């Protein structure tokens, strides 16, 4: 009888540990997903800012080119 109780107690404790492990693993997955989402948002923001800068840069280059072409032609 005592052996049966020990086995039952062992199984109960094992199940509790497995539940704690599963919960910890789920929390870790949620944190990883949140981190990935933040990284995606930061990458999108960087891409947007870089694109804006690149457009301004090319416009400035174009304006400078146009200015010198006008000076040379007139």
TrEMBL record:
<protein>
    <submittedName>
        <fullName>Uncharacterized protein</fullName>
    </submittedName>
</protein>
<keyword id="KW-0175">Coiled coil</keyword>
<feature type="coiled-coil region">
    <location>
        <begin position="14"/>
        <end position="48"/>
    </location>
</feature>
């Amino acid at each position: 009888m005592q052996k049966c109780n020990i086995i039952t107690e062992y199984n109960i404790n094992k199940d509790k540990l497995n539940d704690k492990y599963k919960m910890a693993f789920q929390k870790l997955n949620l944190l990883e997903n949140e981190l990935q989402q933040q990284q995606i948002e930061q990458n999108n923001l960087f891409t947007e800012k870089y694109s804006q800068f690149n457009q301004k840069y090319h416009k400035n280059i174009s304006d400078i080119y146009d200015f010198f072409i006008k000076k040379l032609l007139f």
